[in-house]
């Protein structure tokens, strides 16, 4: 990794800028705690959803899952039309950081694992993303973090070398992949205050 401080900031979105909990939808629909836990573990799970981030349409994956669990079809089919209930609101403090960086003229970008259908629903609801110059969306590209290919595509699209960019993500595997490719990184686990301190220490804020 370059010893120079970065001058470009690249955000993840889910669990950095916005909360994401599949339970946010299904805890409204499944009152029994044990059944809810089973459903989120075995049926509509984050691992299952990852297909969408990699490019698979909601309609296709929901039909396949409903065939596997026919007794759960009604609940499974609610996932797509009510998906926005899985993203209940912003992560506290990070939107202020985005606006502060933009006000300082820091180039802002994003690499996000997000499916095409979900992105089409979500993007109009999230105006803070207007501050970003470009966003690489995994479902559109059919490549997904932590694959090195998506970081290579992002560097090409953004027009900056990895050593010029500061990448923020909540996922340890994504952070490790970016670091191995020469990006400066911040593992977002301690909230906006720790991120702000890191950005200030690098002269970005």
UniProtKB/TrEMBL annotation:
Source superkingdom: Bacteria
Entry annotated with the keyword Hydrolase: yes
Species whose genome carries this gene: Novosphingobium sediminicola
UniProt-listed Enzyme Commission number(s): 3.8.1.2
One Pfam match: Hydrolase
Record-given protein name: 2-haloacid dehalogenase
GO molecular function term, any single one: (S)-2-haloacid dehalogenase activity
Stored InterPro entries: HAD-like_sf, HAD-SF_hydro_IA, HAD_sf
Keywords: Hydrolase
Top-level EC class: hydrolase
Keyword flag Ribonucleoprotein: no
NCBIfam families for this protein: HAD-SF-IA-v3 (TIGR01509)
